[in-house]
Design brief:
The protein is an alpha/beta fold. The protein has 17 helices and 15 strands. The chain has two domains: about 200 residues, 3-Layer(aba) Sandwich (Rossmann fold); about 180 residues, P-loop containing nucleotide triphosphate hydrolases (Rossmann fold). The strands form two sheets. Strands 10-11-9-12-13-8-14-15 form an eight-stranded mixed β-sheet, with helices on both faces.
Amino acid sequence: MTFIKELSPIWQEKWEKAGFEATMPIQDQMIPEMLAGNDIVAESPTGSGKTLAYVLPILERVNPEKPAIQAMIVAPSQELSMQIVNVLREWTEGTAITVTQLIGGANMQRQLEKLKKKPTIVVGTPGRLNELVKTKKLKMHEIRMLVLDEGDQLMAREHRNIMKDLIEKTQHDRQLVLVSATITEEIELVAERLMQHPTRLKVTAEDLPMFGEVTHSFIKVDERDKTELLRSISHIPGMKALAFVNNLDQLLMKENKLKFRDAKIVTLHSEMKKDERKKALDAFRKGEVAVLIATEVAARGLDIDLVTHVVHVDVPQTIEQYLHRSGRTGRAGADGEVLTLLAYADERHYKKFTKELPSKPVQKIIHGGKLIEGSSKTIAAKGNKR
């Protein structure tokens, strides 16, 4: 908690009002480094307090009296940027610090009007920021702090050139901070080329307080039966599951079939309009539906409380991806379950990387409307004994 005492009284007060009992490891490590103005590469699991770890130092270091954009936060998805803006607005309420969101899919004219007012902090997605810089509506040279949230996504090939351009347009002495739940060697190399003697911070799930017990399990299923299995999962009482598929085509196909069969599901993907995404997320948050099916990119940065299950509809390509997705359950002291729908073709791949898990995954089936341990053979055998 020592870093809290380094902040101005207004932020100390707001911290107390927010009712935080303790700081998170990433906040303890990152806030002093950011306040010192250092470049940072920080790795910490989903839901471990990364947003406040960079928001608080930004708020401490900007000057609201100065009419210029002093800090920029870049996020790979609209949802994540909206969540960051909500956190900033909550903390800046009653202060002179102004925040503007610059994301694709939103009204450009309205964003330009807000930019003319010289906000203190901007939060945006790469495409829209690039557009605004190219048309000289957004000037990067005034920015003193640049944060890349979910930096592994932003530095992946899809966005890398845009991000390099944006970074290179800032002043040489600006502070550059990259945070993510997973950081590969490749991303680290790219980041280091653009940074000056970066501080490397790493927090693992074991370092975190309040993480609940997480069970890893799988259901053996034919590829063609996965959609029907998802429908059954959506009717299990008390289910609140975030389900991942590996590509958009598969998601759209499953969505059509499931909606036709009145499954209690909603989907989230890149082709949805802003209001459709909001409607889907609201329905899931309120418990009107039991399963939210998403692609990796669409679900980036989603902060949803009390997710009981993470369902890997498709086996992830890497252990990092598996752990990253799985980190959405078993948070804030609640127990959780990570369930993989395992097709025969993926068994070897799944077994190979789940060897690294702390506990061995258990086989399950849906029986009598519940998710229970066992295989269809053991249940059939029990039935015959009766």
